[in-house]
Amino acid sequence: MTLKKKIAISMLAAAVTASAGGGWYLLKHKSSGTAKDIKAHEGAQLYTCAMHPFIVKDKPGTCPVCNMALIKKIDGGAASGPMTQDQKQQAEMLGHVTLSPTQMVMANVATVTASQAQLKKEINAVGIVQYDQSRQAKVTAWVPGRIDKLHVNTIGAVVGKNTPVAEIYSPELVAAQQEYLLAVKSQQQLKDSPLSAISQNGEGLLQSAKQRLMLLGVKEKQISELVNTGKPNLRLPIYASQPGVVIEKLVQQGQYLNTGDVLFNVADLSTVWVEAEVYEDEAPNVRIGQSVDILSQSFPGRQFRGRISFIYPFLDPKTRTIKARVELRNPGMKLKPDMFVNAVIKTELGTAIFVPASAVIDTGKRQVVWVEKMPGMFEPRDVQVGQQSGDKLQILSGISVGDKVAVSGAYLIDSESQLRGGQGHGGHAGHAGGSPAKEGHGSGAAASPQHNKPKGTLSVDDMNM
Fold first, then answer.
1. Quick check: pTM over 0.70?
2. DSSP element (H, E) containing 294
3. Is the distance from CB of 266 to CB of 138 less than 8 angstroms?
4. pLDDT per residue over 127-183, tens digit each?
5. Which of 84, 143, 184, 396 could tie 384 with a disulfide, CB 3.0–4.6 Å?
6. Taking 80 as the threshold, does the pLDDT of residue 463 lie above it?
7. Strand boundaries in 79-196, DSSP class E
8. Annotated domain spans of the chain
9. Nearest CA among 84, 89, 88, 109 for reference residue 99
10. pLDDT tens across 378-420, in order?
11. Where are the alpha helices (H) located in 192-269, listed in sequence order?
């Protein structure tokens, strides 16, 4: 027998042996698979793990990975028909995330109970001290003339009400005094007349002359002194109409004035305004009558308290702020106009459900919190967020009082849900994209239970590959 024939016979024998062995193997596994398929086709219930969907068993038990109770597996063909209560419950649970005690510790997951309370908010705004416009006045000349003397020569001088600030010589004023003296003499001569019309005429002339003097700014006291002396006063004083501080001086001694010219501007600084600039998103929380604390770097540790008296009906297009006027007392005139201060506006948001701000995950399109349904099992909830008070967020809808929400570790739970495929509410498109920190963190948490799983409890047959 030649060498080529020997090689051909050997190869043929090997091929026959392999075909026989492969046929026996396929026949055995085919019969086994067929039995399993028939069993499933006949309606046998399979069970899976909500946390690890690749675990499939034909009877109830616990998951060999996380020791969680298995749930009934939904048959793929039943998806087209109405779902049973068990199927609905399973579909909901597939959106949940379950963490083992080891994962809870490693992820530092902590929960708090959502509660209801009276929320208060403090709005911080920058303010500028301004003059109280209702307490400003101008000292003007009531008659034309020449300033012969100034009693106030500097800006910042403090004046009182009816305090003389200047003395003016006015020919018109001198003429009016002389007319009044003549009216006084005429009234004295005519008062004893037997004709009542004549005596009344003399009294009328006197009152008319007196009225003219008062319209020219002459006080009652000055008119009485004029009658006592019987001579006109060549220099009559000009008085301040209100107490305050001289903030503007517009004349010099010896200057000639016309009627209505301003000598001084006076402002009362016992009360000042603070115009606080509130951002437009916080403007709805600002109302007239609210209490405001004013803080100044010039007086550390001291608070000046006032109330909002007016809210301007327009928006500053440059700063995007609305001005709120705060009126407050200024003892000792410590607050100076144009001084920068901080305004703390206190407002009440009412009774509402609140959670820590760290419990809310903002995806950009919606806000999500993770609620602990049972120990270690978390369910995602879409919530509507209201106002923020410090480190707490007002929740308008989505959770109820008493729900336990994840505070620390919420992002890891969210990442774990995304790594599982974003089932239910767990997948946040756009929120999870391109965040290596979250993906790495989540994958580490998902892998940690495999290092602690009991040996020999997980087999290939349990997996639906």
1. no
2. strand 291-295
3. yes
4. 999 999 999 999 999 999 999 999 999 999 999 988 899 999 999 999 999 999 988
5. 396
6. no
7. 97-98, 111-113, 115-131, 136-140, 145-150, 158-159, 164-169
8. 38-84, 97-119+350-446, 122-132+269-348, 139-261
9. 109
10. 888 888 887 777 777 878 888 888 888 888 766 666 666 665 5
11. 196-215, 220-229
Phi, psi for 340 (deg, rounded to 5): -80, 135
One CATH from 2.40.420.20, 1.10.10.10, 3.40.50.2000, 3.40.50.10190 for 97-119+350-446: 2.40.420.20
**Tokens in use for 183?**
């009216």
Give whole-number Cα distances, 190 to 179, 198, 379, in Å.
Answer: 16, 6, 106
Question: Cα-atom radius of gyration of the chain, to the nearest Å?
Answer: 47
Enter the tokens of residue 459.
């087999």
Contact present, 187 and 202 (Cβ < 8 Å): yes
CATH superfamily for domain 122-132+269-348: Efflux pump adaptor protein, beta barrel domain (2.40.30.170)
Give the long-range contacts of residues 214-222, CB within 8 A, separation 24 or more.
Answer: 215/142, 216/142, 216/143, 216/170, 216/172, 216/173, 216/176, 217/142, 217/143, 218/173, 218/176, 218/177, 219/162
Tokens of 398: 């989505």
**109 exposed, middle or buried (CB, 10 Å; 0-12, 13-18, 19+)?**
buried
What count of other Cβ atoms lies within 10 Å of the Cβ of residue 240? 23
